[in-house]
Amino acid sequence: MSTKEKVRERVSLKEATSINNEIVVYNDDVNTFDHVIDTLVRVCDHTWEQAEQCSLIVHYNGKCTVKTDILEKLKPQCSQLLEAGLSAEIV
User: Which 3-state string (H, E, C) describes 24-91?
Assistant: First the structure.
């Protein structure tokens, strides 16, 4: 493998791992579907349909990945979800 190929491989690997962070929302007995949907639309820029699907996945599976991005972008969004009373974390 040439030096140029090694550099390309390292760059590709770095790019692939830098976006590996996800916000996961967990089910709870407190929040309504409407509140979860409205919050996902507002905070995560979901469409209404996308937020509704996420809320159903959370309800039936106990959790759902709602956003994938770099950590710096996810931190404020996760904080807003938590401030809205949702159970969420970055994984």
Answer: EEECCCCCCHHHHHHHHHHHHCCCHHHHHHHHHHHHHHCEEEEEEECHHHHHHHHHHHHHCCCEEEEC
